Each structure stands twice: as C-alpha cells, then as structure tokens.
Task: inverse folding
C-alpha cells in the first residue's frame, strides 16, 4: 500500500470509526503534506471542525432517513442517468486541456441528479438541486492520486450560481450551527451581534428552489477551477429548444424521478456544458463563493454537449449503484485544478464522507468504467438500459438542432417524439 493511502486510512479511521475518537490535526497535517497542498493552520482547523460537524449532521440525519447510510449532503438521488459528454469540434484552443484536449471526443458518462438537503424529503419541498457528472475512460494523470487509480473526471454543480459561504472559515462556523440544528444562527444573531445579509440571501435562494424536472434546470459549479492556464467557473444549461412537458402528479413525493422516467421513456435530453473564464479587471474573486461572476463581463462559452438518450433508469440495481457512486471535485485528470479554500476542503471531506458511508453500508467502492453497472447480476447488454431497439453509434441526437460533429457530417437526428419512439423504442 502506498504511504499516502496508508495515511488516508489513518485519517479516515480516526475520523469515523468511533464517535469518541477525533480526527487529529497531526493526521490532517501528514495528509496535507502527502497531497502536496498549500494550507494555512487556520484552514486546517476549519477543515477539522467541518468534518466534526458533518459527522454530527450525518448522525442526526440518519435517524430520519430510511434505508442505507446516505451522503451528508444531497442525500436523495432523483435519478442516475447514462449520458454522452461530447467535446465541441470548435472548442477554443485555450480550453483544449484535460478531458477537453481532443475536439470531438465523446465520453460515456453517468449523471446523478439530487436534492440538496441532508434529509430525504418530498421532491415538492424547496431545496437546492444537484447535477453531478462523472466522465469515465478519462485519460491523463490523476490530479489526486489518493482517490484511486481509475481515471474519471467529475463535474459537480447545483442549480444556484453562488454558495452561501465565502470560504472554508465561514463554512466551518456556519456548519457548527447547523450541527446544533440551528439553521439560521450563523446568518443572524443577537449575541455576538451578527448579520450576514448576502449569505442569508444566497442561502434562501439555495433552499427555495422548486422545479418541474431536473432536465430543465441550469446548473453551476459555484466555485472556480483552473483548466490549462485559464481560471474559470463552469455551468450546464439545457440546450436551445429543449422543452419538457409536465405529465406527472407533482403531489407525489418522488415526482421528479417519475417525470424524468416518463420523459426519457421515449425522448432524449440535452445540455450545453459551458465555461466562464475569469477576467483580471472583473470582480471575480477566487475565494469568495458568494460572488456571482458577471456574465456581461465574461459570458459563458459552450465547449461540450451532454446528450442523455432515451433510457430506463429506475431498476433497484441502478438505484443501488447510484447510492454507492462517489462524486468528488478532485476526480480529475491532467491540467485541471479545483481552486479556493472550499475546494481544498472538499478534497479531504468528500473522500472521508464517502469512505465512511461505504463502510457503514458494507458496500464496496466501485468506479464505473463505462455504461455497465459494475458487479450487477444483470449482464451488460449492447443496449445498456437505453430505450432504443438497435443502438446505432453514434446515437441520434434530440433537442439538438445546433449540434455540429467535428467531421462536418450531418447526423441522423430524428428527434421528434414520434421518431425516437416508433423507430427506436424497444417497447
Ligand atoms: C460550493 C460548491 C459546492 C457544490 C456545487 C456542491 C455540490 C454537491 C453535490 C451536487 C453533491 C452530490 C454529489 C453526488 O451526487 O454524489 C455534493 C455532495 C457533498 N457535498 Fe457538496 N457542494 C459544494 C460545496 C461543498 C462544501 C464546501 C462541502 C464541505 C466542505 C461539501 C460537502 C459535501 C459532502 C460531504 C457531500 C457528500 C459526498 C459523498 O458522500 O459522496 N460540499 N455536493
């Protein structure tokens, strides 16, 4: 076992095996050194405190949630879908790094849509909505080797453009209140006198979103990253022309899953994946996640297309796979780097929490390498859960009139409802 992995295990064990045991600052120091990260003492203290609070939140949440031990955040999945992530043929040269190095390259991907709360709640309740994308078969050197050998690239977003804390220091204080079941105490308080107005507004925006379908939302990274030499934020926006009709009863607790299942029974869905480069003259801080980078100063530029073909995704095996998936902003390859103190904290926290819940559930850590569900009893067929009788590769595209393959070829795009359903559906 490599030393850094050993250290990681020590850290995680000390963090989680016993409620009396605390994660030691020595273990964190060693880990941070092994990872080669630059981190101040104050930042380390904030991370230790965040992990401690997160553990308390999990403990309480678990008393309310049914079923397996869930994620600390984004506990409820509304669906895990198969998708193609295709790099645009005309991607500007400065973005051709990491998984974007090859114009026209297509990656099989998994998308986990989620509700943000730590509790599993009815879909109609206001909440942040998550979209976490995992590209499989990524090539290049892993940016965080302690996370394992299989190369994947994750893009983790929610449907609000800004976070409710500026940095890890504010976050650590805020989550201490949350761990005491005090959801407002950090934002407003009499003693010590406290009024964090911008943050309160952001938090309100975050938790008040009600939606018709996860396929119709726009999602944001909120935090910055570096791709090649460019600092940027990223976002996924439904493709022009994508319209999703409401067809299910929205009073049902899991209507978002039902709505996506109904839409994807015969139709496909599509997102533009875009980046917003940081410009020096703008108000675009790297360590204040409450600031929305102005799109007038730096517009988002589409660099890839996410195509979600018609499919069935609600089997028990697929839901269990989804529960056991680990998304992490530090799953990445090549010239890609998450930036800012919140992102540095996520490198430690996401892995710790993922290891913990897998151990609690006695579930293996599996990383998919394609659209097949690893270790499933059902063998992976060429159809791989798609609602298409004969998958022809590349797949036809829907809601995607602007799609231009790099070869310039005109692709079969029989994407009107009739076309997909009658010509391709297995039913
Ligand atoms: C500000 C930008 C952030 C975004 C866009 C974001 C978004 C998300 C999303 C979408 C998920 C669900 C991932 C999945 O489907 O598996 C998630 C999980 C999680 N997030 Fe965040 N998050 C952010 C910041 C943070 C921070 C600062 C922390 C704590 C330091 C944090 C802690 C967690 C944890 C512990 C999980 C569960 C991980 C697991 O069990 O696998 N998040 N986040």
Result:
């Amino acid at each position: 076992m490599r030393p850094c992995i050993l250290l990681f295990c020590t850290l995680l064990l000390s963090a989680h095996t016993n409620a009396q045991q605390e994660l030691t600052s020595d273990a964190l120091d060693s880990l941070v050194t092994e990872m080669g990260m630059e981190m101040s003492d104050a930042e380390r203290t904030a991370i230790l405190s965040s992990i401690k609070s997160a553990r308390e939140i999990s403990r309480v949440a678990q008393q309310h949630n049914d079923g397996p031990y869930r994620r600390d955040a984004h506990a409820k999945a509304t669906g895990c879908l198969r998708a193609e992530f295709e790099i645009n043929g005309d991607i500007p040269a400065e973005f051709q790094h990491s998984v974007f190095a090859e114009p026209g390259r297509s990656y099989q991907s998994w998308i986990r849509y989620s509700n943000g709360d730590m509790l599993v709640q009815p879909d109609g309740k206001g909440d942040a909505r998550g979209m976490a994308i995992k590209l499989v078969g990524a090539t290049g050197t892993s940016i965080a080797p302690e996370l394992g050998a299989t190369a994947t690239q994750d893009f983790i977003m929610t449907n609000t453009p800004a976070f409710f804390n500026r940095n890890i220091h504010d976050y650590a204080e805020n989550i201490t209140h949350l761990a005491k079941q005090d959801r407002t105490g950090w934002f407003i308080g009499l003693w010590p006198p406290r009024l964090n107005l911008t943050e309160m507004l952001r938090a309100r925006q975050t938790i008040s979103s009600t939606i018709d379908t996860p396929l119709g939302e726009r999602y944001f990274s909120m935090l910055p990253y570096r791709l090649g030499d460019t600092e940027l934020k990223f976002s996924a926006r439904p493709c022009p022309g994508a319209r999703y009709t409401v067809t299910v009863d929205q009073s049902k607790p899991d209507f978002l899953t039902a709505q996506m299942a109904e839409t994807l029974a015969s139709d496909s869905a599509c997102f533009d994946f875009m980046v917003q480069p940081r410009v020096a003259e703008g108000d675009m801080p790297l360590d204040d996640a409450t600031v929305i980078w102005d799109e007038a100063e730096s517009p988002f530029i589409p660099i890839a297309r996410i195509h979600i073909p018609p499919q069935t995704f609600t089997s028990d095996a697929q839901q269990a796979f989804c529960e056991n998936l680990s998304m992490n902003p530090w799953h990445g390859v090549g010239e890609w780097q998450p930036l800012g103190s919140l992102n540095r904290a996520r490198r430690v926290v996401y892995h710790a929490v993922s290891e913990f819940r897998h151990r609690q559930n006695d579930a293996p850590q599996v990383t998919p390498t394609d659209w097949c569900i690893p270790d499933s009893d059902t063998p992976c067929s060429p159809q791989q859960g798609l609602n298409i009788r004969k998958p022809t590769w590349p797949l036809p595209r829907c809601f995607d009139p602007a799609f231009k393959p790099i070869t310039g070829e005109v692709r079969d795009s029989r994407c009107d409802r009739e076309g997909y359903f009658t010509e391709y559906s297995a039913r």
Confidence is low (pLDDT under 50) at residues 1-21, 412-427. The chain is about 30% helix and 20% strand.
